[in-house]
Specification:
Layout lengths: L7 E3 L20 H15 L2 E7 L8 E8 L6 H21 L26 H5 L26 H16 L7 E2 L6 E2 L7 E2 H6 L3 H8 L4 H8 L4 E4 L2 E4 L14 H8 L8 H5 L22
Antiparallel strand pairs: 1-3, 2-3, 4-5, 6-8, 7-8
Catalytic activity: uridine(44) in tRNA(Ser) + S-adenosyl-L-methionine = 2'-O-methyluridine(44) in tRNA(Ser) + S-adenosyl-L-homocysteine + H(+)
GO molecular function: tRNA(Ser) (uridine(44)-2'-O-)-methyltransferase activity; zinc ion binding
Family: Belongs to the TRM44 family.
Length: about 300
């Protein structure tokens, strides 16, 4: 219903109808195949030549359906729009009373599953307004989807939260000794304490929390995004100790090994700049730059 010139691509995944969970009607087919046929049927009812293809993606749900061409001339838009209204209304009715269990569908006869219904059976206002609404209560998604995974937050705001949370963990308990994995010697690099997400949130001001609540995952997402500094495990926040990070066991081609040995560093080391004890790793072992002179 967007426009006559509209084309579409759809990758069916979860089994849903217009008004709720999709109800199976063909026991001889797999659930996935039956649902693909239903989605193709929707395209046919909307006046498209429906094509099917299989994508090269690592997923079990990789069959896509494409509508590039119409089955009718533009002069018949009003008639097809009325047909779409009937189909949507009928799917809603079938979902409640299961009126037709013969919704078998194959590519030879796309109209098998279209329940017959006359104009007189439709509510008068729904027939009249078919060209102006999609369906009662339907709200289309905004053209520009808002990014809400903390990635679009201002950099200075994120840096401020990271610094506040890190200082909270570092000052939670007195500095304690920890074993250096190289040689077993004792040193005093402060690893800080671990706190629950709730405890961390209680120490942040209301304005910061309000801003984070508008993001998906809120505080936890922001901390996980800053994995250089934090490790979030089982709802608890820790300062990441890079000495404990296991090196990758995956063998790389010789060229890549040579490049990684030259240590291309594109970001500054947060610990080198902000941690009271500096970075726990020497410059040559740290994946981040100890000073701007090391940046690529």
């Amino acid at each position: 219903r967007s426009s006559y010139s509209c084309c579409y691509f759809v990758l069916p995944c979860c089994f849903f109808d217009f008004h709720g969970k999709y109800s199976r009607r063909q026991s001889k087919k797999t659930q996935y195949r039956e649902y693909l046929d239903f989605v193709a049927q929707v395209g046919f009812v909307c006046g498209f030549h429906v094509e099917e293809d299989c994508l090269r993606i690592p997923s079990t749900k990789r069959v896509c359906l494409i509508g590039k061409n119409r089955t009718y001339p533009s002069t018949e838009c009003a008639l097809i729009d009325k047909q779409i209204t009937q189909y949507i209304n009928n799917r809603q009715t079938c979902a409640v009373v299961m009126c037709d269990r013969r919704v078998g569908f194959n590519h030879k006869d796309h109209s098998d599953g279209v329940c017959k219904e006359t104009d007189s059976e439709l509510p008068e206002n729904e027939t009249d307004t078919a060209g102006t609404i999609w369906m009662p209560g339907f709200q289309p998604r905004e053209k520009v989807e808002q990014i809400r995974n903390c990635a679009s937050l201002p950099r200075d705001f994120v840096d401020d939260v990271v610094l506040n949370v890190a200082n909270l963990l570092l000052n939670a308990t007195p500095q304690k000794s920890c074993s250096n994995i190289h040689g077993g010697n004792m040193n005093t690099w402060n690893q800080g304490e671990s706190l629950s997400l709730k405890e961390v949130a209680e120490h942040l001001n209301k304005e910061t929390l309000k801003r984070l609540k508008s993001e998906y995952g809120g505080l936890q997402t922001l901390l996980k995004n800053n994995h250089q500094v934090f490790e979030v495990l089982n709802g608890r926040v820790h300062i990441r100790d890079w000495r404990k990070e296991k090196p990758s066991t995956k063998m790389k081609p010789e060229v890549k090994r040579r490049l990684s040995a030259e240590a291309f560093k594109t970001r500054l080391c947060w610990f080198f700049i902000h941690h009271p004890d500096g970075c726990s790793l020497p410059s040559e072992s740290c994946p981040y730059a100890h000073g701007t002179e090391e940046l690529r």
